Automatic annotation (TrEMBL):
Residue ranges annotated for the ABC transporter domain, each copy included: 7-241
Protein name (Swiss-Prot/TrEMBL): ABC transporter ATP-binding protein
Organism: Dactylosporangium cerinum
Phylogenetic classification of the source organism: Bacteria, Bacillati, Actinomycetota, Actinomycetes, Micromonosporales
Superkingdom of origin organism: Bacteria
Feature: compositional bias, Basic and acidic residues: 235-259
PROSITE patterns in alphabetical order: ABC_TRANSPORTER_1, ABC_TRANSPORTER_2
Disordered, as annotated region: 235-273
Signal sequence, start to end: none
GO molecular function: ATP binding
Amino acid sequence: MSLDHAVRLESVSKEYGRAVRALDGVTAGFPRGSFTAVMGPSGSGKSTLLNCAAGLDRPTSGRVVLGDTDLSGRSETELTELRRDRIGFVFQAYNLLGALTVADNVALPVRLAGKPVDPERLAGVLAAVGIAEYRDRRPSQLSGGQQQRVAIARALINRPDLVCADEPTGALDSHSGRQVLALLRRIVDELGQTVLMVTHDPVVAAQADAVVFLVDGRLAGNLTRPSAEQIAERMTHLGDERMTRPGDQRMTRPGDERMTNLGDARTTRLGER
Ligand SMILES: Nc1ncnc2c1ncn2[C@@H]1O[C@H](COP(=O)(O)OP(=O)(O)OP(=O)(O)O)[C@@H](O)[C@H]1O
């Protein structure tokens, strides 16, 4: 079965100078409407994977395909436009503009594209993330969790192909973090968005449909709909993955599935609901 991927990485490697290979031959596809968490030890290449998938970093070799658009060989201007129009970003630091209102922050990607802001679309997105009543406030007048909702609304305004979230709950207390996670889950389930999220936290990753593990820039397996306990267990054994052969992305533990099964896993999940 050929899957409809929001984004696909094909043999992607990323080197910094000669010494650092942040990604090493990563091949992975992320089906539309799926929620995937990327985990691994510090320095394993998680943010690099996310940044390559989002066209923020260029692979040294291999290619990234967003929908049916190959990002290889695109100019900086083209990549900037692709990111603005087709990718939503949510970072640990909310990256909102303090001088703008909530509504203007959310509308910014539309204005930057030189397009008129559709008031209904704007109101709909603000309502969908639960911040309609704060639309005229400045970010500094909101809690961390509310600011992250604004960032999620801004990420959604252009109906992106892919939402990239790097430690989206990293700066939040556990209650706000849970709410933001539930919101990410909801934008996948109800709006059909595709979310790719980097996290260190097994409880956070357990919200995803699939968890992809990285070690030393290589895929070290994935788990489908795991519990936080299964993820934590796996994380403690990740160092063992260094023993696997380069290029061997087969899973070695019970319950694991190959990358190509991520889409099937999601179908199962939704089918169960
Ligand atoms: N701009 C850069 N220049 C040089 N090396 C870099 C650069 N960005 C990342 N690296 C290196 O690439 C490797 C992967 O980094 P990356 O940030 O992707 O890891 P990570 O898994 O997200 O780490 P963390 O969990 O600590 O955020 C690391 O060894 C890092 O030091």
